[in-house]
Amino acid sequence: MSKIKKIGVLCSGGDSPGMNCAIRAVVRTGIGAGLDVFGIQKGYAGLLNGQIRELQVSSVGNIIQHGGTMLQTSRCPEFMTLEGRKKAADQLKKYKIDALVVIGGDGSFNGAMALHNEHGIAVIGIPGTIDNDIDGTDYTIGFDTAVMNAVEAVDKIRDTANSHARTFIVEVMGRKSPAIALKVGICTGAENVVLPTADIDYAKIVGDIDRGIKRGKTSSIIIAAEGEVEGISHTIQKNLKEKHKLDAHVCILGHIQRGGNPTPTDRLIASQMGQCAVKALLEGKTAHATVYLEGKTQLADLRNCLRKKNEFDISDVELLTALSI
Asked: CATH top-level class for 144-258?
């Protein structure tokens, strides 16, 4: 069994709905097991600056329904250096914190792994990112809420598209990950989905829209994953206009997808992962991550979760194609 008495928890990288649920579960599970739990503000940057405070059961009351993170988050280039991680380890020792729970994406996990390898800090990762793009887990906290936010927005856009017989290009978040774009496309009945790593087949897009118009459709929705190069939706709009004489309006959803009340799915899985992380530390396990596989929250080696996953299930594409005729 573990000799851990004090643990810290932080969020790193982009925020995602459900992070508060995970924090709440870590704090209450830890205190219930007799541990002292410390919250670290603003991620690794806050750790370096000593923005650390002890949390009580009441500290995490009335947060489960809120998006974002009560601990705030940030990106910290200094922590990416050997000197920065040495400073972080020194801060943990100063506060006599024995273990660290890190809620974030693959970059945050890589930082935690380095902290463990270089300074022997006990670490557990909880996957929190709306992109659902961490290797080794089927699900990351925030994905369901982000999809719900995007679906609700597209449904509203469809009302205007129908009223004016227009085509809309709706840009969703995702960068290299196709997860949000594909699920939103299926759930909103989009005519086309442009994935971040795929070539754009303009002839197919135009052909699909023309076919719909001929059978009486009054609107078309194209879902575009933002990709790594800014302005993909405007590039699509320009090409359709100049080369295919097709007018389309652009709507970029942006960070609205990352906010708002987490869905029950995100609340449940985040709570399970928070409890699982603390139980792992109590059992003497370290350098692990909580993952969601085959419908269950469980532990995995952190080394299996250090990369992004950008592949997609081909059956989702087949479903989208079959239903968008």
From this structure: alpha beta
